[in-house]
Amino acid sequence: MTNEAHSPNAKPRGTACRMRGSILHSIFVILSSFGFLQSSFAAGALTRAIDIRTLPYERSLEKLPVDLTATIGFVESGGTAFVQDDTAGTHLHFKPARNDLKVGDRVRIRGLTTAGLYFPGVDVTSLEILGHGAPPAAAPASYDDLATGRYHYQRVIVEGLGRTLTPLDENRSLLRLAIGSRVLEVRIDAPLETAPALIDARLRITALAAGGINDRRQLVFPYIRVTDWNDVAITQPAPPLAELPVTSVVTLLQFGAADEPHHRARVLGTVLAAFPDGRVFLRDATPPPPPREQPKDAAPLPQQSPSIAIRLTTPASLSVGQKAEIIGFPIMAGFSASLADAQVISSGETSDLPAAAAAVSLKEFLDGSHDADLIRLTAPAVLNDFFRTVDGYELRLTSGGTPLRAFLLQSAAPELEIDTVVGLTGVCLVESSKDRGFRSQAERASLLLRSAEDIAIISTAPFWTTGRLVIAISILAGVVLLAIVWIAALRRQISALSSRIVQQATQDERQRIAREFHDTLEQELAGLSLRLDAATTRPLEDKARTLIETSRSLVSRIQSEARNLVADLRDTEQLHDLPAALREIQSRMPPNAPALRLDLHPLPAIPGAVSHHLRMMAQEAITNVLKHAQATEITLHLSASADLLTLRISDNGRGLASDTATTGQPGHFGCMGIRERARKIGAEVAWKSEEGKGTVVTVSLPLLHSSF
């Protein structure tokens, strides 16, 4: 290494030059790469709103790149905006929100496609404002255009007649606009206090087409969004109320009566009924029109009802019999023209004579000639049933074999019994109609009762009504059911008593057998043991002494097993406690026996008989180990899962000589007894052994399907 390399000025100068070159090169590469990526992004991006709008749902989920230049048409909030280009409109979503956008801004949007609620839009990654100009062009739209989503999220021009204007919330208003026979919601982002006079005026509204969307990506109903009142233009002011003529109700919606949509009509009459939900029924006070012409040979046409159904925008305090002047929009609701979105102009004093109900037959009631009129059925009706509805109670009746329905709008149930014969007074409502050639005829009608006083009881129901008969049958069925339950309870008691008797008899028999074993076999074994002890004290040959000692050991083991058997027969409490019974086996092991290690886990409740069989199988397996295995250690495992109990006895002895060692040899019945006990309780037993490596006996008992 040279001295120049170690000089204080040489190294920093060279290093700085190399670093500057490297940094400049890196910046150049980054800028070049960014330009390349940007051009690549733009080359494969969606650049037209129509391509985004018509993108299939599955493709929109792929987050396709978007590079769109368009004009802001509506700003919902800082997080959502709507734009249009020359092809269509779409929606934008921002994170974080942007509050600097205005209608008319020309913008360039880069982002990725998103599925949207109705059709795809754009998740914006960057937005550049190119300038500001006029809002996007608005297309004239009909109600059907809006209902089909043709111009959804685009600016539209809608014309119609203002119907109602109400506050939507603190700073927004809701205008209902009549377009032909349809009514469209107009949601305006401006308070109601600043609104012009819009009711009954012809309006041209520039707005954003929108609507309610369900979770199936379907347009449930359309509405339009307006930024402020400047977008609501009045093309024809509403007619002054004073200039509206009083119209006969039977001339409403007749040919040539008015243009479409219909302006408000003014009617005058007597109140027949008024309900809290804003429904009013008025009997017309104007002169009736001339009778309709009819063919000479035709049957007389029914006289038209001079009454009308009215729905008030705001319920008013009106009384039956009161004179009232009301204006509203004529609509065809049901079978006859009615007034909607109406309001009371004036009301007079209530007459001392209430409006008389027209007496009509059942045929006249059903033919539709008294639609919306107050009537009294001349034919009595039988009450078949009544039940609660959302608005009150519905009564099901029969008159002359014809079923009828009546509605009582009150919260309290009517004090009526089934099968009561009643007379009814109420407002006739035609519910459905059918066509006969060019004529529409009523098909079904119902009665709207003003109160419970409109129900006159003609005769009360007989004592044995359907309801009382059902109650009597129910009581009888209950008595029979109680008798069946009592008999079943007696059977269970008898079964339990029989079980206790059997259990007591079993216990007595076990104790008797234990006494017999103790008084006979055990005593005889004790005597034999004493004789063998005495024999060993005398001088004997080695071979004879060995034989006597072996016999003495065998007798001692038989004594031990006999005492264990007597103890098992007397100890009935351990029948249900298998772990305790297995610990008892450990405590009874002979002094010189192999070590017995217990591996016991908690168990569910099992019957005593099953516990006894498992205990005896464990005892027999351990006995086999003591007799034949020459083991130094025995392990006793007991556990249970949700559906299986496992008992396993393993030793480290010499193992079984062959696979047939457990099938039963002449004079050996231990393994055979284990199998028999396993079959009795529905268990399976298996032996696994390797010569010189011990034996494992496994008992598997299904807990859910065992034959306990």
Q: What would your notes on this structure say?
A:
This protein has 708 residues and is an alpha+beta fold. It contains 10 helices and 30 strands. The chain has helices spanning 10-43, 49-53, 57-60, 143-147, 362-366, 466-536, 542-570, 578-587, 608-629, 670-681; strands at 65-77, 80-84, 89-93, 105-114, 121-132, 139-140, 155-169, 172-179, 182-188, 202-213, 219-226, 232-236, 265-274, 279-284, 307-312, 322-333, 336-350, 358-360, 374-377, 381-388, 393-399, 402-408, 421-436, 439-449, 455-459, 595-600, 633-640, 644-651, 684-689, 695-702.
Distance between the termini: 97 Å
Please give the order of strands in the largest beta sheet.
Answer: 1-2-3-5-4
Number of helices: 10
Question: Structural class of the secondary structure composition?
Answer: alpha+beta
Relative strand content: 35-45%
- Which parts are unreliable, with pLDDT below 50 for 5 consecutive residues or more? 1-42
How many DSSP-defined strands?
30
Shape field: elongated
Relative helix content = 25-40%
Largest sheet: 5 strands, mixed, barrel
Mean pLDDT: 83
Using only C-alpha atoms, the radius of gyration works out to 50 Å
